[in-house]
Specification:
With 464 residues, the chain is an alpha/beta fold. It has 18 helices and 14 strands. It has a seven-stranded mixed sheet, sandwiched between helices. Strands 10-11-14-13 form a four-stranded antiparallel sheet, covered by helices on one side. The longest helix has 19 residues.
Length: 464
């Protein structure tokens, strides 16, 4: 053994010596007992508690944060709205057809409230379904020329629940990079393999489809059980652009992907009778596997609907979390949607008026100083961006908020497009979001243009 020690490398002997010393130290050291430590007196404890300052849960917001300057509404959100006691022309809410505050719709809602009260206080499957809900689903399915419809109590939850009801882990989803936040949350909840294509860029979408086809050929066994979806909007909330539906349908059929489309903004707006982007392009709505519609925009109420085949709708009644676990839509709000649907079915006057106002205002907004317009002519949402960006999104946002504040003091209610900066997958540029109503008169358009011009000159002119 002694000879072996002599032949061993010096680094080996040194390592063993360190380990031996460490073991002896651990064996011989005195055990730690908390009670052996010196106890603090009550006075010392109080002093330590007084000195301790916890870290804030969130950083202090800037003084110009909108939360410090709330807009308190004290009237109906109709054509005119009262904000903090000031009467303003309303271009900040999505009341496209001007249905909010109509006496005939309010009368229908009040009669329904006399029968059902103000709420069902339960999910659809647990005493939350009323005859009004079933009638609305039947009528909406017939209006959109599909087999069935399912009614959700909240428009955001409709899309966010419908997507993960069908798309699961291992499936593939292709999504336009400018989709609204509810679609983003639905895609995230699905845990599928997600691929974003450039906004309204069908060539980039085709490129992603080709790349997926190559992957499928390498693993045909997996490809056979993988579902593929494409999710888009008929008209995009974050850009005001219209979907190029014909090209999308061509690619969808060629590559065998399922089409899920959100028509929240396009319903009641596009097409001769307001049936949306499918009517605009004269394409059969059955080309889509399902269509979602928010009722809190053109219809002037609350809630959301998903429409499609009987199979699709039946599946959601058991798998759509927003349907199964949320209290049903208050019957009076469903009755208001039925009344609005009656107006759409009787004539196209409101849709025609909205289209005309959108086009007239669009042309006049193009001439605004310091601001540039980026949206489709027929879009009721107009995004106004700085004509010369500051190069810093926060700076652009602050200046646009100054424009909005100035407009409000001059009697025009408009808003900045707000986003959750840390949550948005592809954060849109800072912009003012102006919502058009069918009831705006030529004098109202003059007021909008004059006020925006004055406010933009006031804010941006100071920098010239």
């Amino acid at each position: 053994m002694f000879q072996a020690l002599l032949k061993a490398p010096s680094y080996h002997l040194g390592l063993e010596a360190v380990l031996l010393v460490s073991v002896l130290w651990l064996l011989l050291r005195k055990s730690y007992h908390p009670q052996d430590q010196q106890q603090l007196t009550e006075k010392e404890k109080e002093e330590l508690i007084e000195e301790w300052k916890p870290e804030p849960l969130v950083p202090d917001p800037p003084k110009d944060h909108p939360a410090f300057h709330p807009r308190v509404i004290t009237s109906k959100a109709g054509k005119w709205i009262e904000i903090n006691g000031r009467k303003c022309l309303n271009t900040g809410t999505h009341n496209y057809l001007g249905l909010v505050g109509r006496p005939d719709i309010e009368e229908v809602a009040l009669k329904c409230m006399d029968t059902y009260g103000v709420g069902a206080c339960g999910p659809r499957g647990f005493f939350g379904t009323t005859a009004v809900h079933l009638e609305l689903e039947k009528r909406m399915a017939a209006f959109m020329k599909v087999e069935a419809a399912v009614l959700y109590s909240y428009g955001f939850a409709c899309v966010a629940s419908a997507i993960p009801a069908y798309a699961k882990r291992g499936d593939v989803i292709f999504v336009d990079e400018r989709v609204n936040f509810s679609i983003q949350k639905g895609v995230q909840a699905s845990r599928s393999d997600v691929h974003f294509f450039k906004h309204n860029d069908m060539d980039h979408f085709k490129q992603l489809l080709d790349e997926q086809a190559v992957k499928d050929k390498k693993n045909p066994k997996k490809a056979a059980v993988t579902k593929r979806f494409v999710i888009v909007e008929g008209m995009y909330m974050n850009s005001g652009e219209i979907l190029p539906l014909p090209k999308l349908i061509q690619l969808k059929n060629e590559y065998k992907v399922r089409l899920l489309i959100d028509e929240t903004l396009s319903f009641g707006v596009l097409g001769k009778t307001g049936r949306g982007v499918f009517e605009l392009y004269n394409i059969d709505v059955e080309e889509a596997d399902w269509v979602c519609i928010g009722l809190d925009h053109a219809m002037g109420s609350v809630g959301g609907m998903c429409l499609g085949s009987n199979y699709v709708v039946d599946h959601q009644t058991l798998s759509g979390l927003g349907y199964c676990f949320s209290a049903s839509l208050p019957p009076l709000l469903a009755a208001a949607v039925l009344a609005a649907l009656d107006l759409l079915e009787k004539d196209t006057a409101l849709v025609d008026s909205l289209s005309a106002v959108c086009e007239r205002l669009h042309q006049r907004l193009l001439a605004l100083p310091h601001l540039t317009l980026t949206c489709h002519t027929s879009s009721p949402i107009k995004h106004l961006l700085p004509r010369v960006p500051a190069g810093d999104r926060d700076m652009d946002l602050r200046m646009l908020r100054d424009v909005v504040a100035k407009c409000e003091t001059e009697g025009l209610a408009v808003t900045v497009a707000e986003y959750l900066c840390g949550e948005e997958k592809h954060l849109p540029p800072a912009s003012i979001k102006l919502c058009v109503q069918a009831t705006l008169s030529p004098a109202d358009l003059d007021l909008i243009i004059a006020t925006l011009t004055s406010a933009a000159n006031h804010v941006y002119g100071e920098l010239s």
